[in-house]
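Subject: sequence -> structure tokens, single chain

Hey, anyone have a minute? Need the predicted structure for the following. Not urgent.
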Amino acid sequence: MRVLVVGQGYVGLPLALRAAQMGHRVVGLDTDAQKAEALACGSSPVEDITAAHLGPVLRDGTYRPTATPDDAAGFDVAVIAVPTPLRDGVPDLSYVIAAGRTVGRYLREGALVVLESTSYPGTTRTVLGTELEKVSGLRMGSQFSLGFSPERIDPGNRVWTLETTPKVVSGIDAASLERTAAFYGRLVERVVRVGRCEEAELAKLLENTFRAVNIALLNELAEVARDTGLDLREAVEAASTKPFGFMRFDPGPGVGGHCLPIDPVYLSWWADQVRGRGSRLIDLAAQINGARPAYVVNRVEKYLTSQGRSLDGARVLLLGLAYKPGSGDLRESPALEVAVLLMARGAQVSAADPFVDPAAAPPTLNDVRPVFASEDELAAADAVVLLTDHPDFDYDQVAARSRFVLDCRGRLAGRLTTAAVVEQL
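Reply:
Had a minute. Here:
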């Protein structure tokens, strides 16, 4: 089939390549012309996709990246995988609507359109479907099929990939569901049918809200445990031995990526729209997680004050900028806010992250000095903050060479320290 994938980022690019590898003729459309050019030359903006993945499908012509909307014409299946950010706490579906207009211009009778972008229940039918009907003049259900299949991409995960992770599929009617299931059934090992798009949209938000709420619980308990002299991480280890009724989560400096800081807000916002009040639990979890970067900075300042030092002028080394280990993904990373808050209080901030290209860092980090986590840098810092527990860091060296370490990830627990004062977050 001729497959159009709108959006060539963390979600759309792996899907486009998988479809091309399975024999479909795929057009990868992105509004970023530089990204499309780079992809055409075999250079990927997504770290899980390499030149070795791109080369074969580019050479045989089964995958064609482009920034030209007219190249979208003639598709049998269109998949929309574009961002759904928040603007001032409100869902921004402008990218979905813009993609719908593009797809609608080239929508033919009998085609299938699938939304993968995360959004609140009703988006596929009432937002995207309405836009497609308006632009194309066709009726969803009777003249074209419409489905929703939420992305479950976990960047850097080598076990649960696009192919191996069960794929939730849904449709606005039975025929759309079956067509969506048939399309993805060739791409992944297992599809999970959900009767309506609305329940599938809710399921996606539920997955990430579940994690965000439980992480908030641990983040709050970490503060309670510290104030009372208890070791929360030891308690978590003990609780994790229970083979039923408990799922492990760990405290940290906040939550990052698109899923945890943003998706739960979509769910609470939607609840407020349809019933006049949101979710107190979700809103509170967002507040707790959102306050963690400031708590990290306060802890660093408190230690320095105890040593007769001020945060103003202090040298602070951040270990890790990405939001998860083994990845260079900076989306919504709490480490970025920690850096900004430290600089706002006068600290001289440097950062070591072997997975992040300094050129890819946002402008807010222009004054952050990129370094390697060398013995000299560790020894020179007044405070070291472990924000992302990358596997490349030498944690024995961190413990031995640093003067003070605020360990936000529990990686230094139990290690011998010759010079460092180590505090767990």
